[in-house]
Amino acid sequence: MKRKIITTSDGSKTIQIEDLNEQYHSIHGAVQEAKHVFIKNGLALFKNREISILEIGFGTGLNALITLMCCKDFNLKINYTGVEAYPVMKNELDQLNYIDCLQANDFVLEYIKMHESAWEANVFITDEFVLKKRQEDFLKIEDVQAFDLIYFDAFGARVQPELWTKVIFEKMFTAMKNEAVLVTYSAKGSVRRAMQAVGFEVERLPGPPGKREMLRARKLK
Known about the structure:
- By secondary structure, the protein is an alpha/beta fold.
- The chain contains seven helices and eleven strands.
- The protein has a single domain, classed as Vaccinia Virus protein VP39 (Rossmann fold).
- The chain is globular.
- The N and C termini lie far apart (43 Å).
């Protein structure tokens, strides 16, 4: 499918799949969305400890980069697993501007290392951040009680409805430890009901720019 780089409302770039009219990030601001959904309402709940994170849709590595940048402020050691069925191409990554938008010049080498590191291997990006990239269909995930936090950042239900059903959220529930949290930009009623049907406690939260609400789900004991 034809893809191109576009600029979102906060000046940060993302990839658009033109045939589907779908983007890797919100057109209202890629960086703003990532910070609001995954950091403010997800990662910020975990401080002063070691945690394991699963990202559904590693994509451009934006969420991983921002998470890495938070390690010292939150006093975290992070084991980060990014699952991606179709890795982003190098020529696309070269056109993105996240380092500039995040004023992250101190993390240039780490961001490059994230994308150049081998798949299916644990790679120390820093002493506090270990990355494992898995090239895998989301529906084939079989982890059991492995993660404290899930960034659920799959393409929207309009273009990939199979990724927002009870089947996928059963896999997420199984993959999570007790008291773990899942955050996503979606606020669709059907998504919330699918989460609740597998046992999640779900809350609606104010969404990032351009979206009224988002969802946060917890796996209780």
